[in-house]
Design brief:
245 residues; alpha/beta; Alpha/beta knot; Trp Operon Repressor, Chain A; 2 domains; five-stranded parallel β-sheet; two-stranded antiparallel sheet; elongated
Length: 245
């Protein structure tokens, strides 16, 4: 897979793309990153990428021409590239969207800045995405969020399918709690069942703890989660206990 990042600040990505899982994924050949400097797609002597908004108002707006030149340059190499702009009006990025993007071959992520981009850019992109209802300085952090979430889903990156399948949101639930040595820390004990060696009981305990945690902290996720009869029975007991309390 190739992920390209179009930005005014290419140096922003130098450290994140050379660390941890993202670096390993590149070494393995699972993903290739390319950082594009938006100023390289200007034609004037001063490499200007922004201008004052028509109609007045605060701030500056990213100009249309260099953005479109960059998109066309990438599409000339690969007409199937999927072009994404980060914008507050886009749908919220989710694990389902990460899985969808991980199944594609080539992404171009556009990092906006200033007051935004010339609105006509929407005729040249494939979709918009938001990572949350808050204001950031630019699109670089959202691009890293998407790049990380997508890369870790690529085959072999995390060392096996199980490592991904049990994570939060992969099953539609929050993940079960984890424990490791020491067994006792200042009177806080790890659950005895995890030391029992009975993997069937351990798996069921983990499933129930994931259900318990999700019901308490993110009950909205239960509406879309794939639940079996045992899950529903456990949740019903939780609800009954809560009513009694």
């Amino acid at each position: 897979m190739r992920i390209e990042l179009l930005t005014l600040f290419p140096e922003f990505f130098a450290s994140p793309l050379s660390q941890s899982m993202i670096n390993r994924a590149q070494t393995q050949g699972a993903v290739e990153f390319r950082v594009l400097n938006l100023r390289d797609f200007t034609t004037d002597r001063h490499r200007v990428v922004d201008d004052r908004p028509f109609g007045g108002g605060p701030g500056m707006v990213l100009k249309l021409e260099p953005l479109v030149r960059a998109i066309r340059a990438v599409r000339q190499e690969d007409p199937e590239v999927r072009v994404i702009l980060f914008s507050p009006r886009g749908p919220m990025f989710s694990q389902d969207k990460a899985r969808e993007l991980a199944a594609t071959r080539h992404l171009l992520l556009i990092c906006g800045h200033y007051e935004g981009v010339d609105d006509r850019l929407h005729f040249y992109i494939d979709e918009e995405l938001s990572i949350g209802d808050y204001i950031l300085t630019g699109g670089e952090i959202p691009a890293l969020v998407v790049a990380d979430a997508v890369t870790r889903l690529l085959p072999g990156v995390l060392g096996g399918e199980g490592a991904v399948e049990e994570e939060s949101f992969q099953t539609g639930l929050l993940e079960y709690p984890h424990y490791t040595r020491p067994r006792d820390f200042e009177g806080l004990d790890a659950p005895e069942i995890l030391l029992s060696g009975d993997h069937q009981r351990i798996n069921r305990w983990r499933r129930q703890e994931a259900l318990r945690r999700t019901a308490a902290q993110r009950p909205d996720l239960l509406e879309k989660a794939a639940l079996d009869d045992q899950d529903r029975e456990f949740l019903a007991k939780l609800s009954d206990t809560g009513k009694k309390d």
